[in-house]
Amino acid sequence: MESDNIRLLSTGRDPRVMDYFSALATLSSRVDELRGRFRPTLFGESYYSDSELAAMLKVSRRSLQDYRNNGTIPFIRLGGKILYRRSDIERVLEKNYTASF
């Protein structure tokens, strides 16, 4: 029995082995995808860059600049980099939410 399992694994032609390696490849690609989207937090808070927030809200970076200039959205300027706290953005969106009729 043990030699049969070794033989099956060594040939690589067994459908079970092929399914196993296919599932392993799928799992590996999903882990890589999650790792690419992972955003570490700073004191439990996550931050968006200017381009990330623009893409997420589907507005231009120039519109974000207008929102910053007129005080619509809070931001952090760190050197030449603009950052937005996730909780601040959620708060602004909730505050400006309009329910349907």
Could you state the order of secondary-structure elements as H and E?
A: HHEHHEEH
Radius of gyration: 24 Å
What would you call the structural class?
Answer: mainly alpha
Number of helical stretches of at least 4 residues: 5
Kindly report the spatial arrangement of strands forming the biggest sheet.
1-3-2
Sum up the overall morphology in one term: elongated
Which percent range describes the beta-strand content?
Answer: 5-15%
- The helix content is 55-70%
- What is the number of beta strands? 3
Mean pLDDT: 84
Distance between the termini: 70 Å
Query: Regions with pLDDT < 50 over 5+ consecutive residues?
Result: none
Largest sheet, in brief, is: 3 strands, antiparallel
Describe the structure concisely for a colleague.
The protein has 101 residues and is mainly alpha-helical. The chain has helices at 2-11, 15-37, 50-57, 61-69, 86-95; strands spanning 47-49, 76-78, 81-85.
Give a topology summary.
Blueprint: H1 2-11, H2 15-37, E1 47-49, H3 50-57, H4 61-69, E2 76-78, E3 81-85, H5 86-95
Antiparallel strand pairs: 1-3, 2-3
Describe this structure in words.
Strands 1-3-2 form a 3-stranded antiparallel sheet. The longest helix is centred in the N-terminal third of the chain and has 23 residues, at about 15-35. The chain contains 5 helices and 3 strands. The radius of gyration is 24 Å and the shape is elongated. It has helices at about 1-10, 15-35, 50-55, 60-70, 85-95, and strands at about 45-50, 75-80, 80-85.
